[in-house]
Amino acid sequence: MKPDDPNEPDQATLRQRAEAELRRLDAAAPEAAGDVLRLVHELRVHQIELEMQNETLREARSGIEDALRQVTGVKEQLEDLVTLRTAELHRANDQALAASRAKATFLGMMSHELRTPMNGILGMVELARRRSGDPKIKEQLEKALQSGRHLLEIIDDVLDVAQLSESQLVLASHPVQLDRLIRTLRETIEPAVLAKGLTLRTELAPELAGRVFRGDALRLGQILLNLTSNAVQFTSAGEVSVSGRIVAAQGDAVRVRFEVRDTGIGIPPDSAKDLFEPFVQLDGSNTRAHGGAGLGLAISRQLARLMGGDIGVESAPGKGSLFWVEVRLAWGLSDA
After folding, report:
1. Is 123 exposed, middle or buried (0-12, 13-18, 19+ CB in 10 A)?
2. The pTM of the whole model exceeds 0.70
């Protein structure tokens, strides 16, 4: 037999130790069971809290889904309304454009129809004036000619408005000598200037004199004549001046600025902004005193913009006015 190990416990000792361990476990069991019960209770409390939170979340989600459905419905209604209003606006815009085209076409046709007989009337009146030997009759016929020419100018303005509104007016591109243009302007306006006892001054910057540009001399002359005629009309004493200079040059083009100054009645600031609108005049008293249909400045602005420029005014009541216009002209092939 194997001799006994003095350090190994015997069977009796193991039994005693096992019984002692069992008694210890039995003594600790009530306390361990209490901990387990408390843990189970805490878990159930947490479970109930989670269930309550889940229910709250479900209710909140249901509310959000209801709100989203309402928002979607409102959105769809708004989209339908926008589509409907957009279609109505398109129809109204198409109708307005059609009416505008019809009006422009009518004005253009009537202007042509009026111009032909008006030229015939003016020709006959001029012929009668030349043949008449009675000074009084000559004077009366001259007044008739002046009125007829004024009416013809209005007819021409109406035709221009019709063409511009329909974008039918096409600018020419021919050689332009600004010194000749200013000289023609002076010859045209000088009788009216002298008749009112005014002084007319014209000045071109040295870089413009004798130079050849390309552009629409007829329409540029029309703008300058309109501005200068207005200046003479609204000036009872003093002078009217016309000047021109280059304000910018780039590549094969230049931007030329013309200024027409007068010592006339001036324009209130709140009225100046409307001057370039069609059929706008300062007031009834000025209309009666100076005449005009209120088309010249509107036409001048549209022509200036067609020429790549613009037009404006600086004025104050009793201090005269400065009308300016800038246009884009191309360099000519040669100088005069």
Report:
1. exposed
2. no
